[in-house]
Amino acid sequence: MKKTFDISLVDPLSFIGSNDKNIKLLENNFSTNIVVRGTDIKLDGNKDEIALLDKILNNMLYTVEKKGYVEEEDVQTFI
């Protein structure tokens, strides 16, 4: 299953983290392929994992909207 997640409403660096650390944390915990292109995050994997990643990415988006950034510890909590 494939899904594209749009992060254009927030600063991509605040969402992805320096050196892509937030995305790398997700990649290390899930087998789903995660590709970031501009303000799009493309997910390619099994349906259940993508549903879970969708929830995590939405929580990350909400956190960036509230705090202005998301930390690695926040992402770990969401996982």
Folded structure, characterized:
About 55% of the residues lie in helices and about 20% in strands. With about 80 residues, it is an alpha+beta fold. Strands 1-3-2 form a three-stranded antiparallel β-sheet, covered by helices on one side. Strand 2 (about 35) and strand 3 (about 40-45) form a beta hairpin. It is globular and about 30 Å long. It starts with a strand and ends with a helix. The relative contact order is 0.23.
In short, what is this structure?
This protein has 79 residues and is an alpha+beta fold. The chain has helices at 12-16, 21-29, 47-67, 72-78, and strands at 2-6, 33-37, 40-44.
SSE map:
Layout: E1 2-6, H1 12-16, H2 21-29, E2 33-37, E3 40-44, H3 47-67, H4 72-78
Antiparallel strand pairs: 1-3, 2-3
Helical content (DSSP H or I, runs of 4+) = 40-55%
Main sheet: strands, sense, barrel = 3 strands, antiparallel
Rg result: 11 Å
Q: What is the CA-CA span between the terminal residues?
A: 20 Å
Approximately how much beta-strand content do the residues carry?
15-25%
Give the overall average pLDDT. Answer: 95
Number of strands: 3
Report the order of strands and helices.
EHHEEHH
Q: Can you list the strand order of the major beta sheet?
A: 1-3-2
Which spans of ≥5 residues are poorly predicted at pLDDT below 50? none
How would you describe this structure in keywords?
79 residues; alpha+beta; three-stranded antiparallel β-sheet; 4 helices; 53% helix; 19% strand
